Amino acid sequence: MNNIIVFCQTNEKGESCQIGLELLTEGRRLAAEAGVKLEAVVIGHGMYQATETIKKYGAQTIYCADEERLKEYETVPYAKILTALFEQEKPSIVLFGATDMGRDLAPRVACALGCGLTADCTSLEIADYTDKNGTRYEKVLHQTRPAFLGNLLTTIVSPSRMPQMATLRGGLFGCQPAEGATDCKLVTLDTSMLNDNDFSTTLHESIILENKAANIATAKVIVAGGYGMGSKENFDQLYKLASQLGGEVGATRAAIDAGYANHDGMIGQTGITVRPKLYFACGISGQVQHTAGMDKSDVIVSINNDPEAPIHKLADYAIVGDVNKTVAKLIEYFSQNK
Ligand SMILES: Cc1cc2nc3c(=O)[nH]c(=O)nc-3n(C[C@H](O)[C@H](O)[C@H](O)COP(=O)(O)OP(=O)(O)OC[C@H]3O[C@@H](n4cnc5c(N)ncnc54)[C@H](O)[C@@H]3O)c2cc1C
């Protein structure tokens, strides 16, 4: 088996995005299991900070394409660089974040290389695999993702064409720097194959809006509201509770469809995956499409007036009662007890 390469997305300041660090954390575990090297690739401009951070996460090689024209993400040049790198290095596994960029880039690269791609994975394992013809493959990547509206999990293998490529959802793996120092080699990638036609857009102005989804994804405390909040006015009380706890507010799809909250705060299978230390589920029933995005929270507190609501079974603390009365009491309590 050859090495594992993680595509580490960088931000406009040349820092590594959280998703890249999560993938390195998970990639390090897989590389140790498979007995291969963990490597990273970054593309952009002025990425000293990103490479310094990536070193701490145990990458043994960082492939770096750094030039002014690559400062802003563009599909064609980024895909060309990655395709050339993977053709040369022949990794066995390549991991991307299931971000807007990863979802755009990974299929292009997979198509250029003629290999498979499993999108939106929620867990990965290395194990042997025997196909229906009896052909045995050793140390294959088993890629698990939700299917059929999240009602079942499916495991996909693609051992006959390398690399085995997957995009992974953020918020599932945590970020853990490597213990001890790792020797890390920085390799500058040749970008001379890029020509001006590869850069089809010109950026005139960039406006960075507050990224609510990113704030929720990294919050330590989340107060999430569902359809059971009953109205937008009731839902707005959750912002008060969240601010008392230094947290963020999330929502279910039903609450968003009812107009109580904005779409960028949706938690679940088709929204953000979160893993906070404390998760309040307020007026939420606990349908699998929602819980798929929050069931790894450290402590879950459910507030629902239906004692049979599935969310109570998942919760560490279940409060059976009216959500608005309970939230009001919590706000009163926390205003007196910081
Ligand atoms: C393909 C697909 C993808 C989806 N993706 C997502 C996703 O990513 N995220 C997501 O959230 N959903 C998603 N959904 C929708 C999901 O299936 C559920 O419909 C949704 O999560 C339900 O939201 P809810 O719990 O707020 O509402 P409900 O299921 O209607 O639950 C409301 C709860 O509030 C309780 N309640 C009512 N009044 C009160 C009160 N006064 N006090 C206390 N409790 C009260 C009720 O007992 C009930 O349990 C998806 C659905 C599909 C088909």
How does this structure look, described?
This protein is of the alpha/beta class and 338 residues long. The chain has two domains: 195 residues, HUPs (Rossmann fold, 3-Layer(aba) Sandwich), CATH 3.40.50; 125 residues, Rossmann fold (3-Layer(aba) Sandwich), CATH 3.40.50. Helices cover 30% and strands 25% of the residues. It has ten helices and 15 strands. The strands form three sheets. A seven-stranded parallel sheet has the order 5-9-4-1-2-3-10, sandwiched between helices. Strands 12-11-13-14-15 form a five-stranded parallel sheet. Helix 6 runs parallel beside helix 10. The longest helix has 17 residues. The model has no long low-confidence stretch (mean pLDDT 92). The structure holds flavin-adenine dinucleotide. Flavin-adenine dinucleotide binds next to helix 7 and helix 8.
What is the structure about, briefly put?
This protein is α/β, with parallel strands linked by helices. It has helices at residues 18-34, 48-56, 75-89, 100-113, 212-218, 232-244, 253-257, 288-291, 310-314, 323-336; strands at residues 4-7, 38-44, 61-66, 93-97, 117-121, 123-130, 136-147, 152-156, 164-168, 185-188, 221-225, 248-251, 278-282, 299-304, 317-320. Helix 3 crosses helix 4 and helix 6 (232-244) runs parallel beside helix 10 (323-336).
Residues in β-strands, percent = 25-35%
| N-end to C-end Cα span | 54 Å
* Poorly predicted tracts of residues: none
**Order of neighbouring strands in the sheet with most strands:** 5-9-4-1-2-3-10
Q: Write the CATH architecture name of the largest domain.
A: 3-Layer(aba) Sandwich
CATH topology of the largest domain: Rossmann fold
* Rg, Cα atoms, Å: 22 Å
CATH class of the largest domain: Alpha Beta
The arrangement of helices and strands along the chain is EHEHEHEHEEEEEEHEHEHEHEHEH
Count up the helices: 10
Bound molecules: flavin-adenine dinucleotide
